[in-house]
Amino acid sequence: MGTHETHSSEPEPLSLPVPVTPAGRAALEAIVGRPATTLVALDFDGTLAPIVENPEDARAHPGAVPALTALAPKIAAVAVITGRPAEVAVRHGGFAGAAGLEHLAVLGHYGAERWDARTGALSAPAPHPGVAAVRAELPGVLAAAGDLPGVSVEEKGGRAVAVHTRRADDPRAAFEALRAPLSDLAARHGLIVEPGRMVLELRPPGMDKGVALLKHVRETGARSVLYAGDDLGDLPAFAAVEKLRADGFPGLLVCSGSTEVGELAERADLVVDGPAGVVRLLRELAAQLG
Fold it and tell me: Is the pTM higher than 0.85?
């Protein structure tokens, strides 16, 4: 799991990092100057929660909820945008009942599901029928792909299926061996394949983190946004923020540092050291806002 923060008798000094891009610096200035109109949106796995071999073991960094509860009352809204089922992210994140997070929304399955902290209500459409069909055929497809010990399947509430290769003998080779057959399987049932960090997720088309983020920006009336992510699935959200910036909307892109997804780091205004770095950034921002 993640590294716990160490504490000394003296409080750790906090200071906001400086984004490496002009757009990022302008966005941070807007966020600090007008926090009441800022949306902070965050991925879950790899951003708020350290990556672990078994997805069921993932839990938010121990400093995540305290940092969010310190920051949330000072800004317009906080959203967690994840490929996980919303209720799983809520449970693994420890978000339910956290004082100060009344304006938190967890957008699960790339925005297809929504959990609101104020009411505890979960809203979701009916599952895509292709997901059940894919799940039924998946064992045969994996067997046909060859001997791949360590490959595991994660069911995501009937709304998606993820095939993990992180625990395979050769994770990258297993990942590449499965890309084509899983893409063919998904296409036969009207689904798409979303690649990630040693995971291939089969899910319905039409929803991604960029779509979910833009919708939430409109719903909250935010006039600036910070988005933090760590994986290929966060690229649509990065693209959404870049689109907003082209229209004069301040947006700060944060990469939760990963050597596995260089493209995200290259497009980010700020790279931090994994979930611990994200937590520190949230704490620093909360302290800056007073």
Answer: no
